[in-house]
Specification:
The complex is a heterodimer of chains A (about 260) and B (about 475). By secondary structure, chain A is of the alpha/beta class. In chain A, about 35% of the residues lie in helices and about 30% in strands. The longest helix of chain B has 17 residues. Classes of the chains: A alpha/beta (about 260), B alpha/beta (about 475).
């Protein structure tokens, strides 16, 4: 489904990703872990097509096409979804209007008919149950004045509506208390299907108690320095990142 | 009707309020002022004017004398530094003949009306039109009439209040309006009375009003603990080229009064508009103002309020959206005279084409006005390379225990927000439209008159997002 080869990217003159290789198959859950500043979020943003980042080299093949050639909206229309670490507030646009516009634009791009507002309301109410969201949130402006937990739930609601093939969750656990974490994680698990895949980007292991990965990759200094099964996450939880950084030749100081 | 507002007027006119304001330092003897002189003597010959009470004609004379003295403002005048008044000042306008016919129909006004039950008062080219209007004169608890009728019936309150807040000493356009004011509306509300039906005053220009100037005048007197909603629409129809509406509205709020006063300016882009609202508030009163400005080739709106009683609150919000060669200018002044008053102000602008926007907002806090809480912001969204905005939020604080904030922004659409929408599959074009609409909707959401909010949101939506 996704084949990343030697991906290098950065902001302005600073290279952050220094050659990433990663392969993701349908049905798999991959966790990308790493200390702060390792490039985890950059990887997520580059895959979603954030124009603030510059791709310096390498390739990303998604379902047989060159993902890096596509505009962000085209990526989304082809099934790539990024749950933001910091969801953007858009005062003045209601959540329901936003969700319906997005849903219909994706359908249009896929050659399907647009859904009328009433049918969409049925659909959205169903999806909201998945993340235990109050229907009143539909009439509020997108993320505007939402608590941290509400914002993250809203991200998963968007994911539930758009039903992506490849979902990238960027630090979805940050800022969540344990109840919100459970709700968000359960939402993600319910959306899991044999034909879609998930990349979970996270600093801490705790989210992985709920969303169990098939593979864990450790990112440091813009490179994947170790890959393994879900037990690698537990090892990181126990030992921290230092032992890996030392064995890979990096110093702790340069990470900070 | 009681006259508890008497002392209010005096206070407003006394010299310790507004002392910081400089009179207009305009070029005198402007050629066009001579032309107005002729128009003014013609006006005085009109039967409707000649038969008016002496006090009103005195007020007119005072207004015209001030206008002559001040002349049209030039760029040397600080309040006109960014807006060139020349398109108005150098144009020769006509005075409309009394009782001239027009072509405005009910259907033509349909787009300018709001949902629900309104008292609707229509003036075409400055003149009251009974057939297009639909309103009750009141029930003894409140009184609504045309200004002409009110003066003809010798309503004392009108004589006492009209011109009390007009600022003709420093504002040439207010002086010009005072000299030429032909008609308008008087709304008087008794103590504790609530006017259930909102009042909608439509000042309409049509092709028969092309190249004329009209001077609508509105007076609102809300006695203590009364409530009233008044919306003034300034609109014009196709063919009203060179139509110039120069309006003044005076609003008095006695203690505890609540007045919602919105202005909707949707004149055609070949017309001109200048309008000033002068407001005076006693303690615990609440004045809510909204200025929506999308029309005219050149428009200028002043909103001035004086908070002169403990616990008074003012909300001054606005939205301007212009394109092409339009120029839109807003000047607000909030004067905190008494302690413990609050004022909140949000103005937003969206500018496209080669349009120009000006926002000049002053918050003036007197030494006695301790515990003042003032918030002011002006945010502008620029959609093209040639559009321009000048914004000048100003705080002048002479009390030491106040909380005042202000800020202004001029920018383009936020890249993060654009990316966020696009990452959900929304096309680049739709994302831009949606964010532009959202920028406008954010301030429209502040409106508390629901039918207007819905209507203006609809207009903004079809302008940007469809």
């Amino acid at each position: 489904m996704l084949d990343i080869k030697g991906l290098r990217a950065g902001i302005a003159d600073r290279e952050i990703l220094k050659g990433i290789d990663l392969k993701v198959n349908p049905g798999e859950v991959h966790a990308v872990m790493g200390p702060n500043g390792s490039g985890k979020s950059t990887l997520a943003q580059v895959l979603a097509g954030n124009p603030g980042y510059e791709v310096l080299g390498g390739s990303v093949n998604y379902e047989g096409i060159d993902l890096l050639e596509l505009a962000p909206e085209e990526r989304a229309q082809k099934g790539v979804f990024l749950a933001f670490q910091y969801p953007v507030e858009i005062p003045g646009v209601t959540n329901s209007y936003f969700l319906r516009s997005a849903y219909n634009e994706v359908r249009k791009a896929q050659g399907k008919e647009e859904m009328d507002p009433l049918d969409f309301l049925d659909l959205i109410e169903e999806k909201m149950k998945l993340v235990e969201m109050d229907p009143s949130m539909l009439n509020r402006s997108v993320n505007s004045g939402f608590s941290g937990g509400e914002k993250k739930r809203n991200e998963i609601l968007q994911m539930a509506v758009l039903e992506p093939k490849l979902a990238i969750l960027d630090e979805t656990d940050s800022g969540l208390d344990i109840d919100a974490l459970r709700i968000v994680a359960e939402g993600v698990n319910k959306l899991k299907r044999p034909d879609n895949a998930t990349i979970v980007v996270t600093h801490y292991q705790r989210l992985l108690n709920y969303i169990v990965p098939d593979f864990v990759h450790v990112l440091a200094h813009g490179r994947i320095i170790k890959s393994g099964g879900k037990e690698l996450a537990l090892e990181l939880e126990e030992k921290g990142y230092d032992w890996l950084l030392e064995s890979s030749g990096a110093t702790v100081a340069s990470v900070a | 009707m009681t006259n508890v507002l008497d002392q209010v007027t005096k206070k407003a006119e006394s010299s310790d309020v507004g002392h910081s304001r400089e009179p207009v330092n305009a070029a005198k003897g402007h050629t066009m002022v001579e032309a107005y002189k002729e128009l003014y003597s013609n006006l005085k010959l009109q039967s409707g004017v000649a038969s008016q009470p002496a006090w009103l004609n005195d007020l007119r004379d005072k207004g015209f004398a001030k206008f002559e003295e001040l002349g049209f403002p030039t760029k040397r005048n600080e309040d006109w530094h960014f807006t060139n008044s020349a398109p108005i000042a150098t144009k020769k306008f006509d005075l409309r003949a009394e009782g001239a016919s027009h072509s405005v129909t009910k259907e033509a006004l349909e787009p300018f009306l709001f949902e629900g039950d309104w008292a609707t008062i229509v003036f075409v080219n400055g003149e009251f039109d009974k057939d297009l209007s639909n309103f009750h004169r009141g029930n003894g608890r409140f009184f609504i009439s045309t200004l002409k009728e009110a003066t003809a019936n010798d309503i004392r309150l009108v004589e006492q209040k009209l011109g009390g807040l007009g600022q003709i000493d420093i504002n040439a356009f207010a002086a010009l309006n005072t000299a030429f004011m032909q008609d308008g509306v008087f709304v008087g509300v008794s103590p504790n009375a609530v006017v259930d039906q909102p009042v909608h005053i439509l000042y309409v220009g049509d092709s028969t009003g092309a190249n004329t100037f009209v001077s609508p005048r509105t007076l609102i007197v809300a006695d203590h603990h009364s409530e009233v909603t008044v919306v003034e629409s300034f609109v014009s129809l196709n063919g009203a080229e060179g139509y110039f509406s120069n309006a003044v509205t005076e609003v008095y709020l006695a203690p505890g009064a609540q007045v919602k006063h919105y202005k909707v300016q949707r004149q055609t882009e070949d017309s001109f508009h200048v309008g000033s609202s002068f407001v005076y508030q006693k303690g615990d009163s609440n004045y809510e103002s909204f200025s929506y400005a999308v029309g005219s080739s050149l428009s200028r709106t002043n909103v001035d309020t004086i908070l002169d009683g403990d616990g008074a609150h003012a909300t001054l919000n606005g939205l301007y959206m212009v394109d092409g060669d339009q120029v839109v200018d807003h000047q607000t002044r909030i004067e905190h005279v008494a302690p413990n008053c609050t004022s909140h102000e949000i103005y937003k602008g969206i500018l496209d084409g080669s349009s120009q926007g000006v926002f000049n907002g002053k918050v003036y806090v007197h030494p006695e006005a301790q515990k003042t809480d003032g918030k002011q912001s002006n945010n502008n969204l620029i959609l093209s390379d040639n559009a321009e905005v000048n914004t000048k939020p100003q705080l002048e604080i002479f009390a030491d225990d106040v909380r005042c904030t202000h800020g202004a922004t001029i920018g383009r659409l936020d890249e993060n927000s654009l990316f966020y929408l696009k990452s959900r599959g929304v096309s680049a074009v739709t994302a831009r439209k949606l964010l532009t609409y959202a920028f406008a909707a954010e301030v429209l959401e502040e409106m508390t008159i629901e039918p207007i909010k819905l209507k203006l949101e609809e207009l903004a939506f079809s302008r940007f997002a469809e």
